[in-house]
Write a structure and sequence with these properties.
Helices cover 74% and strands 2% of the residues. The chain is an all-alpha fold. It has a three-stranded antiparallel beta sheet. Helix 24 runs antiparallel to helix 25. It is elongated and about 85 Å long. The two termini are 32 Å apart.
């Protein structure tokens, strides 16, 4: 999971959740309806990876420009940054329910705009709208579920929202694969996201506002009426009292950090030593989560697989389905072991695995490029009218191989030998004519990566292993650390800063990946991520404490120490 949270829970809580949901279907309907926001969040993260392959085929300007490709992917992240910021204000001013309805409207409009997509800029505009909806949903859906759920099963229901995010990513890969043979391919992939957004919009119209928000706004009778549908009569008075005390405590905590603008509160947080230590650890974990390169896999996994030497769009999408499925498995593993092994241990173990497999990917891509099939003069002259212009004018064309052919010009591709793809092939212009004449002779046409034999499957194995070690640790734990490491009175403002740092890091990585592969090659791009991961591992060892099983007050006491060694057990844990 890339931009969501996981909530601590146990088997008993899941069992209680299942039983209570059957006894009170209203609770299940409420949680499921709001949880569709998590599904939409995950779907949008994954769907663009497959749609991009076919957008490139339909728009030559996009195929020739890595900047346009990165912009199409990344504009949703830009929208999400603003959506999360606007969503925080909207949640407080207008309520959780209205915020979800607005997010659905934006998501639906964005999906329709992308599906129409007559020009690349229109797809980009649709991505911004979808991003705004994703940003709002990412923070509003779990908030609504947590505030409108019985306390006994709150953790399980919020955690289900996290699973729906990774489930949405997996669903997007299935949808991508299903529409590869349908006319309109990417339009269906992107446009179909409007359906669950519409479903959620309709369902939310019949659901109430969050009782907590209503109580804070002085609408006590409405809040009590909603709580009466959630709790049995004999528990209602106690729950109303608990809500009242919780809201009063929350207001008191907010007042303790002073009045003023959000910027004043941010300044107060950074100038308070205890909070600053927590922020360094929390934001550091969020930045590390993105800079280990996870969203290169989420947004570009079919492209990475093509770079490894798998030419077919359909094959690339099918293999990418594995990475998404393992992300779901890893998230489930994390939920089951997080309280057994602790946060730091999981992150450190995850980072070690990430480093190993990123350098493994570096080695596989480097060896594959060194063993790239040569460009044959006879093979190329066989397609005389479609020969790559750069090859025709090159003084040392006789020493060219597939990698040099693809790097020489954006407008060139490699036509592999019909009998053996490792034999010399032809370097042709990548306009439709070159690709068509190559495929017309039943040869394989490469425009992204080169034939690499078994190295391609070894690279894919490394990619799969990378996801498997990432998801249980760095995929979920940074969000849990951020939910535990800040003093209660600063949780809102610090959590917001940490979330923004995650989105901004996400944008930097997704906006630069293709440019990096073009500038330095795939091997050195993964090496760069591997080196950043080494630095991140050292950071986690030195600056991130273990918060397993600790109360908020205990975490604060630990951070108050002038000097504390995080690799040793804290006194409060003994």
């Amino acid at each position: 999971m890339v931009e969501g949270g996981a909530t601590k829970l146990d088997k008993a809580e899941f069992s209680e959740c299942w039983q209570m949901s059957w006894r009170q279907p209203y609770i299940l309907r409420l949680a499921f309806s709001a949880g569709i926001g998590g599904l939409l969040f995950g779907y949008d993260t994954g769907v663009i990876s497959g749609a991009l392959l076919y957008i490139r085929d339909d728009f030559p300007s996009v195929d020739k420009s890595t900047f346009l490709q990165e912009t199409i992917v990344s504009m949703a992240v830009v929208g999400a940054i603003f959506g999360a910021g606007i969503g925080g204000w909207m949640n407080d001013a207008w309520g959780r329910r209205k915020s979800i309805l607005i997010a659905d409207f934006l998501f639906f409009i964005g999906s329709v705009v992308m599906a129409i997509g007559l020009w690349p800029w229109l797809i980009i505009l649709g991505r911004v709208f979808v991003g705004l909806g994703v940003g709002m949903a990412s923070m509003t859906s779990p908030l609504y579920i947590s505030e409108a759920s019985p306390a006994k099963i709150r953790g399980a229901l919020v955690s289900t929202n996290g699973l729906l995010i990774t489930g949405g990513q997996f669903l997007s890969y299935l949808i991508n694969l299903a529409f590869t043979q349908v006319k309109g391919t990417w339009r269906w992939m992107l446009g179909i996201a409007g359906v669950p957004a519409l479903v959620q919009f309709v369902l939310m119209l019949s659901l109430p506002e969050s009782p907590r928000w209503l109580y804070r706004k002085g609408r006590t009778e409405e809040a009590v009426a909603i709580l009466s549908k959630i709790y049995p009569a004999h528990e209602l008075d106690n729950e109303v009292d608990a809500l009242r005390m919780s809201v009063e405590a929350e207001i008191a905590e907010e007042g303790s950090i002073g009045e003023g603008s959000i910027f004043a509160k941010i300044k107060t947080a950074w100038t308070t030593p205890v909070v600053r230590k927590g922020l360094i650890a929390g934001i550091g974990c969020q930045v590390a989560q993105q800079f280990v390169g996870i969203n290169t896999v989420m947004y570009y996994s079919p492209t990475i697989i093509q770079l490894a030497g798998i030419a077919s769009n359909q094959a690339a999408l099918a293999l990418s389905l594995t990475t998404s499925g393992l992300n779901v498995v890893g998230t489930i593993i994390s939920i089951s072991v997080i309280d057994r092994y602790g946060r730091r241990k999981l992150m450190i173990a995850s980072m070690i695995g990430i480093i190993v497999f990123l350098f493994g990917l570096t080695a596989m891509f480097k060896v594959a490029s060194l063993n790239s099939p040569p460009v044959g003069k006879l093979e190329t002259t066989h397609f005389a009218n479609s020969t790559c212009p750069a090859y025709m004018t090159a003084p040392a064309a006789g020493s060219w191989d597939c990698v040099k052919c693809l790097d020489a010009s954006v407008g060139c591709g490699f036509c592999a030998d019909k009998e053996n793809r490792r034999n010399p092939g032809a370097c042709l212009t990548s306009n439709p004519i070159g690709g068509e004449v190559c495929k017309g002779e039943r040869r394989t046409w490469y425009t992204r990566g080169c034939p690499s034999g078994n190295y391609a499957y070894l690279a894919i194995a490394m990619l799969v292993a990378y996801i498997l070690v990432y998801a249980p640790g760095m995929g979920t734990v940074p969000w849990i650390v951020n939910s535990e490491i800040y003093p209660l009175r600063f949780r809102g403002v610090c959590g917001g800063m940490a979330a923004v740092s995650n989105w901004v890091s996400n944008f930097i990585v997704s906006m630069s990946f293709l440019s990096l592969t073009k500038a330095v090659g795939s091997a050195y791009t993964f090496m760069l991520f591997g080196l950043i991961s080494c630095v991140s591992l050292v950071f986690i060892i030195l600056f991130v404490p273990e918060t397993k099983g600790m109360q908020f007050e205990e975490v604060e006491k630990m951070l108050e120490k002038r000097s504390w060694k995080v690799w040793k057990k804290s006194d409060v844990q003994k």
